[in-house]
Amino acid sequence: MIAMRVFLLMWLVLMVAYTGTVIAHDGANFLTPFNAAVARFGWEGQFGLDLLGFLVVTASWITWRQGASAMSLLTALLVVSAGMIGVALYLLIVSMSARGDMKVLLLGRTRAANV
Question: What is the rounded distance in angstroms from the CA atom of residue 95 to the CA atom of residue 106?
Answer without folding.
Answer: 9
